[in-house]
Write a structure and sequence with these properties.
Aminopeptidase, seven-stranded mixed β-sheet, Acyl_CoA_acyltransferase, GNAT_dom, GNAT family N-acetyltransferase
């Protein structure tokens, strides 16, 4: 089941943080870096964030999280993480489908590391098309993908 998470609640923020840490450690290893900016995010940062968090709940546990920002019909997917205990169960795809179907937007955008092929393939499966590649100051080559609303 997917539901909106109240990240201002310390316990919920801690659950989000735990999923982020576990998932981003795997992603950092995939990318081949120890200096991975998402791993430096604090519980307080999550708790104070004005973004929206949706969680995939499995066995009363937060198994996956998608974080989004909506601004003027523009949907930004800021993060999509799945606890490694729940990898390869379709959770990430269900979270992406959920926001694309339930949130009214004109364009959705997401960024990930160029070497994160599983994430890129997931987004492409949902209609996202690559439109930009660059290397930010932290040195991890990135790709941006977008999809237009069909509504």
């Amino acid at each position: 089941m997917i539901r909106k998470l109240d990240n201002s609640d310390e316990k919920v923020a801690n659950q989000i943080f735990t999923v982020f840490q576990r998932s981003y450690q795997v992603e950092a290893h995939l990318i081949g870096t120890l200096d991975f900016p998402p791993l430096f995010r604090s519980i307080k940062n999550i708790e104070n964030s004005k973004t929206q968090f949706y969680g995939f709940i499995k066995n009363e546990c937060v198994a996956g999280v998608i974080e989004i920002v909506m601004e003027d019909q523009h949907l930004d997917i800021n993060s999509l993480t799945v606890d490694p205990n729940y990898f390869r169960k379709g959770i990430a795809g269900q979270l992406v489908s959920f926001v694309l179907e339930k949130i009214e937007f004109s364009e959705a955008v997401v960024e990930t590391a160029v070497v994160n092929i599983p994430a890129i393939n997931l987004y492409k499966k949902h209609g996202f098309i690559e439109f930009k590649r660059w290397t930010p100051a932290h040195g991890i080559r990135k790709v941006a993908l977008s999809v237009k609303s069909v509504i």
